[in-house]
Amino acid sequence: MLVDKAVNPNYVPSLYCRKMGPELPTWIIYDKQILRFKAYFQQSLVEWPHESHVVRKVDIFFYLEDGTIKVVEPRTGNSGMMQGVMIGRQRIRIPFSDDNYYDVIDLNIGREVTFFGKVFKVGAPAEPKYPKHRPFKQFLDFDRQVLRFYGYWDDRDSMFGTLHRLEIHYFLADETMEIKELLSHSSGREGTTMFLKRMRLPRIFIKVNKYLSWWSTLSTDTGDSGGVTSALPAFWVGIEYLMEEGVR
């Protein structure tokens, strides 16, 4: 039954015509009844050269019993941002107004609301079209996600060779790989199980010609003719010494 009510500019919720409302108090009728709205806002990135802003998703909770509003940002693991409750439960005034507060009719899909100087747009944001390679986004999406594969390397054709059982880890965050060797308790081998440290591997392996002359690329110390002073990269196949008689 609807009865006439006194005019009250702060009366909530605004689900009824003016001077019309339920006979019972709203805190009894709408007790523990909460509406949730999906929304988002844009935060400017001043110190990030690759992007001008980031889109942050939030949930707006509207409590029907007293017209209060709470804004919560869902927590994301390893996001590097302060998340959780952004605006505590309270009644929020409409900007440039003394006695008007936000109500449930102000949270329609597609509308923008301003809470304490921050503009929220009600609704789900459109998914942006990112370029193919975005290291920062890839790190946020796939951090701590690793694919594990099992394999082996048959080295029994060489002298003292054996069958190496391997465990391959592929890190989705930066597309790196590492390989560990699985040693049994009775293998009789000591040392680390790291077969290949974490790195990015090329798809095509270029074999180095061991007969290739690379002496012209070495920097030698003219004051000491006893040897080569520059360090050799890992892919070089050997080292020679420069003597007075020549290379031997």
Automatic annotation (TrEMBL):
Taxon lineage: Eukaryota, Metazoa, Ecdysozoa, Arthropoda, Hexapoda
One Pfam family linked to the record: DM10_dom
Residues annotated as domain DM10: 31-138, 143-248
Gene Ontology cellular component list: axoneme; microtubule
PANTHER family: EF-HAND DOMAIN C-TERMINAL CONTAINING PROTEIN, EF-HAND DOMAIN-CONTAINING FAMILY MEMBER C2
Main location: cytoplasm
Keyword Cell cycle: no
Signal peptide: none
Transmembrane segments annotated in the record for this chain: none
Gene3D superfamilies in UniProt: 2.30.29.170
InterPro entries reported for this sequence: DM10_dom, EFHC1/EFHC2/EFHB
Protein name: EF-hand domain-containing family member C2
Subcellular compartments: Cytoplasm, Cytoskeleton, Cilium axoneme
Biological processes annotated in GO: regulation of neuron projection development
Keyword DNA-binding set for record: no
UniProt entry keywords in alphabetical sequence: Cell projection, Cytoplasm, Cytoskeleton, Repeat
